[in-house]
């Protein structure tokens, strides 16, 4: 298929010349401010923490973060505290993914409060109202498709390096708002493409890809690389990690030339005070 037979020369690109970096400027659906990841990483980390402690299926993470990004795409980052929203998304996702979880268990983990008492009840009310607003935002359409089997189909030979990298990238992709801007299959195929390219095995899997738009594929890859920079993550595939390092260096250089600004504590959850319930519209 055209667009998949030629391997992009990731390592030879400078941080100013990277084609993936150019995509993030040229194609608006795949432009994400780096500051977005600061908030999203907190929500993602909290979701993972709850899922792991309650021994829930990993699909809950993907479903919860999909809800989180959809909510933020509609209401922005200030409508509901990101950790309250994360708790509401995780609670709803756990039910959708067929787990029997009590809201009190999630609240106790997220806000570190005593399982009984007024503080617990206050946080339960806040999260419950956030969940109601979330349901309205989702228009009560809770289905989320996670085509993880598609990864195995594309990596048909079970190559360990490609498979592990693609699976890890897919899980980490839920830090990004890609789920609101591309189909699940597009995301999976782009991430497998990136992993295969990084492992120098792109030609092996070239015929399995269905995406016909190289621009959208490169846009998805660009967002994923920026997220890895923000999370300080690597892939253990030198070809990709060289690009991540170049982007990180470019970002540091850009930040060093910007005037300093006062930090804000907006959106930080605290159990010091009785919480205020979010408005439901």
Record keyword descriptors for this entry.
single chain; 281 residues; mainly alpha; Cyclin A, domain 1; 0% strand; globular; Cyclin 9; Cyclin/Ssn8; Cyclin-like_sf; cyclin-dependent protein serine/threonine kinase regulator activity
Please provide a brief summary of the model.
One of its GO terms (molecular function) is cyclin-dependent protein serine/threonine kinase regulator activity. The chain has 281 residues and is mainly alpha-helical. The protein has helices at residues 19-26, 34-53, 59-75, 82-96, 103-111, 118-137, 148-154, 160-172, 184-198, 202-205, 214-231, 238-256.
Number of domains: 2
Kindly, what is the distance between the CA atoms of the first and last residues, rounded to a whole number of angstroms?
A: 48 Å
Give the integer mean of the pLDDT values.
82
Count of DSSP strands: 0
Radius of gyration (Å) = 20 Å
Helix content: 55-70%
Low-pLDDT parts are: 1-27, 261-281
Shape annotation: globular
The CATH class name of the largest domain reads Mainly Alpha
| Structural classification | mainly alpha
| CATH topological fold name of the largest domain | Cyclin A, domain 1
H/E order of the elements?
HHHHHHHHHHHH
Characterize the largest beta sheet: strand count, sense, and whether it forms a barrel: none
Secondary structure tally, helices:
12
CATH architecture descriptor text of the largest domain: Orthogonal Bundle
The proportion of strand residues reads under 5%
Organism: Trypanosoma brucei equiperdum
InterPro entries: Cyclin-like_sf (IPR036915), Cyclin/Ssn8 (IPR043198)
Region (Disordered): 255-281
GO molecular function: cyclin-dependent protein serine/threonine kinase regulator activity
